Amino acid sequence: MSGWLTQVSAFTVFLSIGGLGFLFLLISLMFGELFAHFDHSFDHSHDQGGPSILSSRVLGVFVTAFGGFGAVATSLVRQE
């Protein structure tokens, strides 16, 4: 079992993280806010009307960007 695990490169791991984040983002955009029942705002008087920092859209963009930038960084390090 661990034979295939040692052959997985960091580029593949970051690319799969980015792909999963992008899939999560597409699902979130199609079906709406996935974590709406977890959204608790403690400051009710200063609501700005924008998405929360823990909304599913923001988390999906973060995971996608993390995977994409990680894949780019590992490919640049591998070339040098």
What does this protein look like?
With 80 residues, the protein is an all-alpha fold. It has a domain at 9-35 and 54-80. 62% of the residues lie in helices and 0% in strands. It has three helices and no strands. It has helices at residues 2-5, 10-31, 56-79. Helix 2 (10-31) runs antiparallel to helix 3 (56-79). The longest helix has 24 residues, at 56-79. The chain is elongated. The two termini are 32 Å apart.
List the helices and strands and how they pair.
Layout: H1 2-5, H2 10-31, H3 56-79
Helix pairs in contact: 2-3
What does this entry show, briefly?
By secondary structure, the protein is mainly alpha-helical.
End-to-end separation in angstroms reads 32 Å
Whole-number mean pLDDT: 79
Helix-strand pattern, N to C?
A: HHH
Tertiary shape = elongated
Major sheet: none
Keywords:
elongated, about 80 residues, about 0% strand, mainly alpha
